[in-house]
Amino acid sequence: MAALKVAVIGANGRMGQQAVAAIRQADDLELVAEVSRGDDLTNVVDAGAQIAVELTVPASTKENLRFLVGQGIHCVVGTTGWDEQSLGALREQAAARPGVGVLIAPNFSIGAVLAMHFAAQAARFFESAEVIELHHPNKVDAPSGTAVHTAEGIAAARSKAGLGASPDATQHGLDGARGAVVGDVHIHSVRLRGLVAHEEILFGSPGEQLVIRTDSFDRTSFMPGILTAVRSVQDHPGVTVGLDKYLDLR
């Protein structure tokens, strides 16, 4: 079987460099284009890429996706900053190109994907739930896309189970002391030199606590997920959010 032809957008970034190396080492994949800031995206088309791995920044990713999807190129996207409005626009673009697959992955770490999955399962059994995400200080968004996705999954599971908001008697506090709120789940963001990507998901009920923690100590931890996504995206037309949809987590 011929190798899949892959391009990396954002190839000079930390994640991009790791993705380039991982794709080069994969026998069933062929790296045909490396695109960095300022490069023309037509290089991806001219190289005959079937799949593009998009690892840029929120300011440019949506325009990049508009071009790539318009060219019929499958996309694996690790850039965060997507909301329902931008996802809706992307779904419309993808619908105009039937057969094109797009994966928006809040996190490519298999550990993080499993943590989010386990958290959604646990959410209905506990009275309280909060999320702490810890990243390096160069990260441009807070809270992280992973934390937002985690909180959304927890909130959906709690709502389906008929649970109300976590108990909280706070009446006075400094701004931000209780963190951001996503679907009534509080998220606390830490930015600290020496960290890479870490998340703690805390559940509590009277007399007990469950903590789910995932740690990425190096960006190589994201590569198995990226390679899985690249190999699978053609089989999932339309827009998919979350690598878990490509895994057998039933």
Automatic annotation (TrEMBL):
Gene name, Swiss-Prot/TrEMBL: dapB
EC number: 1.17.1.8
Subcellular location: Cytoplasm
Recorded metabolic or biological pathway in which this protein acts: Amino-acid biosynthesis; L-lysine biosynthesis via DAP pathway; (S)-tetrahydrodipicolinate from L-aspartate: step 4/4
Self-association and partners: Homotetramer.
Superkingdom as given in the UniProt entry: Bacteria
Family: Belongs to the DapB family.
Organism: Saxibacter everestensis
Name assigned to this protein: 4-hydroxy-tetrahydrodipicolinate reductase
Free-text function comment from the UniProt entry: Catalyzes the conversion of 4-hydroxy-tetrahydrodipicolinate (HTPA) to tetrahydrodipicolinate.
Domain Dihydrodipicolinate reductase N-terminal: 5-108
Catalyzed reactions per annotation: (S)-2,3,4,5-tetrahydrodipicolinate + NADP(+) + H2O = (2S,4S)-4-hydroxy-2,3,4,5-tetrahydrodipicolinate + NADPH + H(+); (S)-2,3,4,5-tetrahydrodipicolinate + NAD(+) + H2O = (2S,4S)-4-hydroxy-2,3,4,5-tetrahydrodipicolinate + NADH + H(+)
Alphabetic keyword roster: Amino-acid biosynthesis, Cytoplasm, Diaminopimelate biosynthesis, Lysine biosynthesis, NAD, NADP, Oxidoreductase
Record InterPro entries: DapB_C, DapB_N, DapB_N_CS, DHDPR_bac, NAD(P)-bd_dom_sf
GO molecular function, one term: 4-hydroxy-tetrahydrodipicolinate reductase
Active-site residues, Swiss-Prot/TrEMBL: 135 (proton donor/acceptor), 139 (proton donor)
UniProt xrefs under HAMAP family: DapB
Positions bound to (S)-2,3,4,5-tetrahydrodipicolinate: 136, 145-146
Residue sites binding NAD(+) per the record: 10-15, 34, 78-80, 105-108
Top EC class for this record: oxidoreductase
